[in-house]
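Our working data are protein records whose layout never changes between entries. Getting from the letters to the tokens is the skill we practise here. To make this concrete, we reproduce a full record directly below:
***
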Amino acid sequence: MSTIMLKAMAAGIGACIVFDLWQRLFAMFTGIPPSNWAMVGRWLLGVMAGQGVIAPDLAARPARRNEAMAGWALHYVVAVGYAVLYAGLMQLGWLHAGLVDGLIFGLVSVVVPWFFFMPALGNGMMARLTPNPPLACAVALVMHAVFGLALGGGFALLGG
């Protein structure tokens, strides 16, 4: 495996750990619960079972065996995927290892939950089907900013 791929894996996993720790700290101070990775796992297992990518009734679906584990696994796989993308953009010279570029990347990456994961999990685009869409979108933006900072910082610590 190439050095850049190893760095991407390490930076992605490290940034995901920072993201997870930040969510718990954020929850302690705001009362806003962290992401429910079991629901993400329920969605993933449903997709794998042919139930479709958009799950408007996800919360009403019965729990699946190992859904939490599947959700956590997907969470870390996606984080490494983001890190591979970041590494590719560094190779092209579009991004550099560091906090500023990491923050920019994190802020831009929020389009994925706003326009894919929120609708896929039954919450509509930009969480329009939730009780407080602006809050849900703002929390996603903050979390992705933290992830991006950690990712850019991770690459900087690893020597780009």
Remarks:
- The chain has a mean pLDDT of 96.
- The two ends are 16 Å apart (CA to CA).
